[in-house]
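Exercise 7.
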Amino acid sequence: MYNTVISSILTHHNHHGQRTHLAFSLYSQILCIQTIKPNSYTYPSLFKACGSRSDHVWVRHGRALHTHVLKFLDPVEYDQFLQASLVSFYSKCGKFGACRHLFDQISEPDLGLWNSILSAYNGVDCTDLCVEVLFLFNDMCKGAKVKPNEISFVAVINACADLGAFSEGIWAHSYIVKNNLKLNRFLVASLIDLYVNCGYLELARQVFDELPKKDIFCYNAMIRGFGTHGYAIKAIKLFDKLELEGLTSDDVTMVLIISACSHVGLVDEGCKFFNSMKERYGLEPKVEHYGCLVDLLGRAGRVNEAMEKIRIMPMEPNAVLWRSLLASSRIHGDLEIGKVALDHLIRLEPGTSANYVLLSDIYADMNKWEDVKRVRRLMKDHGIEKVQGMSVLDV
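Solution. The predicted structure, written as tokens, is:
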């Protein structure tokens, strides 16, 4: 009964804080009753709840739960659901070493466990982990007992997209088609990213067009593709189309469309999209949107306007914004704003040599060699060394 109630609370209430506390309160009651003890059905939903919360406190709760598993359960009691929940929990916490160690202890993982470990590395911006996904998938396919499904291929194709592994991605797409797997929105978004990253924009558009019912994730993937390759007008037309289909733009959509305008110098259009976020789409601009706006204005030489946007933004500007402004100042020779940007960067990143080097380059572009020497002396006084460049002969 306790297991049923705990699972019900966490399954049907989206792991809101109150519900999670209630579930753990019931678990604590189990520990206080001498006649019963937790079993393998007690823990999966609790691990899932801990992994779904970004708070470090809940990560600690999850790790404490793992010690309870070791204390209360005999290894023969570990079923696939419990093992999968542990693998998933550690993956969501970013503990990939623990995640892989637990997986390797399982003698005959089923499809759910294979998908858990593949998905663990999914979306992690690390080349080594993307390569690991492909090796794991290869191991999975060696046995005749487990056949990959759509979830497996989302992880594999995302890894191929991040690596730019076109041949492996084409093979995965072919397998999906030949084996009549369903091309759902997640697979389509992954395939679009694959073809965009590999430079095959027409193939990306073909995959997009063939999906009968598209969601905002598919539109975002295709808008990103057009923006990345400099087709801002096509990105804007696709943005208009998603609105005609009754879809609602999200924060990611607005970042992508403003960025697309920035890449080709459509300054007025980009500003219009930014200004419409709150009044038309009900979206509060975040630091990422201000970053795109500053980049848009800076590229167009409107450095003073970019500086003003940073000054009036409601949140604290991050290093990315100041570095973008500093780069724009260098391109357009605005030394005063460049120095303001550098002052903020030094406060945010006091040990980053690239910020000093960029200002030094601005002085050099303007033939102010005494100022170049002064910046180098400043670096020396702060104990900051310039990162050495590398020749192709060194590779």
